[in-house]
Each structure stands twice: as structure tokens, then as C-alpha cells.
Amino acid sequence: MTFIAHISDFHVGGADFNEDVFFNNVDKVNELDPDFIVFTGDFTNHGYYAEYVKTTEYIKFFKSMLFSIPGNHDARNLGYETFQNLIGERSWARNLSSNNENNDKIKYDATLKEKHMFKDNEKKCWTKKNNGSKSFVDISNITLVGLDSSDPDISDGSVGRPQQLWMEEILADSYINSTFSIVAIHHHVLPIPKTGRERNILLDAGDILKSLTDFEVNMVLSGHKHVPYLWKIENTLFATAGSFSSLKLRGSCPNSFNTYEIEEDYVEATLKPYRKDDILLGKHKL
Ligand SMILES: [Fe+2]
Ligand SMILES: [Fe+2]
Known about the structure:
The chain is an alpha/beta fold. The chain has a single domain, classed as Purple Acid Phosphatase, chain A, domain 2 (4-Layer Sandwich), CATH 3.60.21.10. The chain has six helices and 15 strands. It has a seven-stranded mixed β-sheet. The radius of gyration is 18 Å and the shape is globular. The model is unreliable at 119-126 (pLDDT under 50). One fe (ii) ion (FE2) binds at residues 41-42, 71-73, 186, 224.
């Protein structure tokens, strides 16, 4: 079994950032002791350097491994450069394996990142080679891909053709090797109910949705709307997380994060709302 915490949208530096809620949720995540944590964007509110410095102090409180991608707020005011300087790569891919005799915890190697530099990739778009669906998914081997969907100083997002081709190459390997695949992307690929008029969706959502479902990505993790939701389209689960610590919330929707329990034959997604009981988002067969 692999247990993942999905957190999003801190908005450090914003007037609506609530430090009490932040630390309460950090404690909750640490108590759960996930194998790893995926953060899906908007660490900061304005992308300011000082907000990033503060963020690097905050994320030290998480005890589990944390993988993160930028959101639209992080890309403001040259924040896309600061993300790279203080946090890490904005797009990346990792192999995670729980096949380690000495340690139950998941291990990762960074080889995928070095192997695939999407800026240099001029290969043709991959097409799905197999008309059937994945008959077996090896949950002890996880392919985790982080995409940068932010564009400087605008709220809309896009993946862009070069990054899409880079992702498809990795997803093709995952498909062939039957690894459990997860893609993290800040902007939601599918509309989220109860978020008002649809806006700031990915500009190339249709192309990305096709890639994700063609390669039967097991899970797509997003943030951005501060509203948790779970869609299943074909064989792919699309999960969005609420805001971890910003009070920019809709209606009575509280701060929250998600967890995912991945077993041999199913994925169980749970919402962890602030100071409220857990809510089952869904339990889906693999
Ligand atoms: Fe946000
Ligand atoms: Fe956002």
C-alpha cells in the first residue's frame, strides 16, 4: 500500500494566509506519516522573493518527502525564476519505488529528470500503441510527473507543446512498464463544480486531457480553485485539492487536503477538512 498526502495553495504572504490553520494542518499531515506529499502549486501569493524565503522555512516542518510544482501565483513578479532558485525544478519526473528491503518507505531516483530535458525534445507526439487498457498496474513502482502550467503574471495556464511531448514520452514508458502513474499540475484539466463561471482552465486542456487518458494515467492531481473534487474519466482519476491554509474559500468549504490510499486493486481518496470529520471522495478500482 502507498499512502499519499496531496496539499495545495498555501498562499504565503497573502492577507488571507492563516498560519494557525497552516500549522494545524502540518501536524495532521505529519501524524498521518504519508509515504510522500505532493504539493500542487501556489506556495506564495505574489511570487515575491520574501514570500519564497518564508515558504522554504514553512515546508521544513513537513516530515515526509515533498514534491512540488508552481501555481499561477508563484509565477508572478519573476517568481518562476525564484521557484527554480529556492524550491527546485518547475517540471520534473521521478521514479518512486517501495521495493527496498531495508526500509518500508518509498525511495526515489532522479534519473528521469536527467534523461528527459523537454526543451530539447523534438520528437513526434507519441500515439497510444495499445488499444486495450492496462491489464496490470504495478503499485510498487510509481511514475510521478510534475508539470509547470503557470505563465508569468497571468492567471490562465497552459502546458505547451514541448512540455506535453516530454510528458508523453515518460507516460509511454510508464504505460509499457505498467507503473502506477501520477501527474501533478496546478491548473485543473476538467471543470470543478461549485466554482462559479469556468475560467483559468488550461488553455490546452483538450490536448492534455487526451494525453492523460490515452496513456491511462492513474491519477492527475491539481489545485488552483481551492475546492476539492474527484472526477473519473475513462481509467484516470482527476483529483483537485482545496486550499491548505488560505482563507480565500468558497461558501462553507473549509481549508483541507486530500489523502490517497493506493492498494493492489483500488485507490481510495479522502478529504481531510480542517477541524471536521473526514469525507470519502471516492473509492475506485484500478
Ligand atoms: Fe490558489
Ligand atoms: Fe492558482
